[in-house]
Amino acid sequence: MGRSVLITYPDKCLEYTTRSVKNLLPKSQQICHIDVAGETLRIFNENLRWATQTIGTNIETLSLGEDFQTDDIHYNYIVFLPALEHEYIDQIVDAVSSIVDNTALTTTNNPRGRWAIVISDQHLQSYSDLAMGILTEIYETYYIYDVLILMPDIKSGIIQKGKYVEHEDVNNITKDSYLLYSWLPFNVDGKQPILFDEWIIDEQNSSQSLGRNLFPPKLPPKGISINLTVSPLENKLIMIGKGNFTDDEGMIGYKYEGPEVNTLDMIAEHLNFSLRYGPTPSPEKKQTERIVEAVTPVALGEVDIAIGGIPLHSQLLPFLDFTHPYYLSGINWFVPCPKPYPRLKRISETFPVSVWCLFALVIILTVIVTFFQSQFNKMSEIGSYQSGVMCFYCMWAVILGVSVPNMPRTTSVRCLFLLFVWYAFVMNMLFQTFFTSYLVDPGIIDQVHTLEELIESDITMGYPKMADMYFFQDKSDPILVKMHNRSEDIPYGTHVTIIPKIIVDKNYAALLEEIYPEYFAKTMMHSKPLCYLDDRFSTFYLSVFLKKHIPISGILKSYAHRLIEGGLVDKEVNDMKETWNFKISPDANAYDDGGDEYFVFSVHHLMIGFYALAAGITLSSILLVLEHFHFWLFTKLKK
C-alpha cells in the first residue's frame, strides 16, 4: 500500500471539449469532472493501489474508506479546478483557495504533502501570472509550498531554455499538452514561478517533454534565506534579557541569553536564517498569563517561534507545533533534610528494652545461683559470697570493670564467676563501641520519602492554592484531598521566604518548581543540601513552540533533536547552572554555619561521659556521707 491520495473535483458537468482532457475518457457529447476523478481512481487502483479519498467542491465530503484512520494524513493531493471561459486570474486563485480551505478543515490535512492543481478548459492569457497567484496565495495562507500546477497549453508553445515560447504555426498543431509550473520559494532567487516541463498527450500515450523531476526538494538543507520572529518568555534563571537595540531599518530588537537562545542561535547560524526577538510579557503578571501571552502570537501566526521554558500542555497542541522536549523538570514537595539524631536519645537506644531486660535477668540469676552455691559449700566458700547483698555487689563490680573484694574459692562458683566475667566483657565491648560511635556521629533521622508519609507527619505543608486547577484536579483522590485540607496557602513567587523555612528551620514542606529552590540553594545556601520526595508531583516537558505548519518546522525539529541527542542542550543547561555558583549573594553567610559534613572528635563529644562521671561521683559522695552518718549514729546509740 502506497501513500494516500486526496482527489478534489467539481461536481458540475461541462460541454464537450476538444482540449486535452478528452483523451482521458471515451468519446461523449459531455464531459464531467467526476468522470475524470473516477478514471483517475481506476488508474491509481490498478497501477499503484494507493489509499484514495475523493471530495467534491460543492457537495459534502465523502466518507473515508477503511484504509484511512483518524490519525492518518494525506501525502498527495490532486485538485481538478473548473476554469470557465473569460475568468480573471483573481477568480481562479479564489477558487483554488476555497478548495484548499475545505481540505484544511479535515483531520487528514497535511500542508507538507505534494499538491497537483489541474486547470482545464480556459483560454488563459498569462500562465506565469496565474501560477504565481496560486502559489503565493496557498503558501501565505496555508503554508503549502510543494505545488505543481498543470495548465492547458492553448497556444501550444514549446519550452526553450526554461521559458515558454509560442508556436509559430498554430493551425498545424497536432498535439494536446499541459504546462507544468512550480517554484523554489526558499532559494536565493526568491519566489517566482518556474516552468518545469510540458506534459504532451496524444491518442496513443502521454509523456513529459524534458523528463524533469516535478517535485524536487523545495527546502535546501542549508542556506535558507528567511527571517523568523521569536516571542520570548523572559525568566531570570533560564532566559535573561540583555536590553534592546535599534537596527538599520529603525526597528527595535531585543537581546537575550540562555540555553534555549544559544541553541536556537546555533541552528540559525548553521541554516543561515536570521532571528528577531520581540519583547517579553510583563513579569508582574501571573506565570500562566505570561505563558499565554507568549504563545498566543505564535498560535495566531503573527510570530514564528516561542521560547522561554514553556512546558508542553494538551491545550496548546492543536494550535502550535513543537520540538522534541529538551529538558525535563517539574514541581515537587521540598521537605526538611534529615536531622541529626539526639545523642542522649541515641545512646539510650543503644540496646533495645528487651536486651536490657535480658541483661538484668542474667545478673539476677547469676546472683541467685552464686548465693545458693555458696550456701551449699558454706564451709569452703568465702563469706563475701554467702550474703545476697555482697553477691550482687560483686557482680555489679564485674559489670563496671572494677575489682571485687574477694575471689571465690570453690570450683563451681569460680566457673560461674568466670563465665559471667566473659559475658560482662562482651556486653561492655559492644556498648562502648556503640557509645563511642554515637558520641561522634549519632546518625540522622530518616527523611520523608512519599506524599503519604508527609501527610502523616507533623511537618507544616503549603503550596499556592491559586493553582488548584492544576494541582487538585482529581477531587476523588483521598491523598490529594488530605493534601489540600492539610496544606496552607502560600503566595506564588514567595520561595525566597519559604525555602529558608525548609532548609534551615526544618519545620516546613512546600510544593515548588524544582529550578527555584535549586537556584536559591546555590546562591544563598551553597553548603546546604536540598531534599525532596522520591517521586515528582508533576512533570514538565520544556519545548520550543513553532507556528503551526511553518515550512521549516521539520528542519528546525530535526536539528533540535540532533542537538538534544548529542548532549549539546544538556551542556548549555549545565553551563547555565554552573554560573549560579558564581552568583553567591552577600547574604549567604547568614545561612552558612560552616558546614557539618565532617566530624572531629573533641572534648565536646565526650560531655555526656563527663556528665555521667560527675553524676556517679556525686552519688558516691552522697552515699559516703550517709554511711559516715549511719556509722556515727549507730555508734552513738550503742553507747
UniProtKB/TrEMBL annotation:
SUPFAM superfamilies: Periplasmic binding protein-like II
Spans traversing the lipid bilayer: 353-372, 384-404, 416-435, 608-634
Protein's cellular compartments: Cell membrane
Membrane topology category: Multi-pass membrane protein
Key words of the record: Cell membrane, Glycoprotein, Membrane, Receptor, Transmembrane, Transmembrane helix
One Gene Ontology term, aspect cellular component: plasma membrane
Keyword Transmembrane attributed: yes
InterPro entries reported in the protein's UniProt record: Insect_Ionotropic_Sensory_Rcpt
Name assigned to this protein: Uncharacterized protein
Protein source organism: Diploptera punctata (Pacific beetle cockroach)
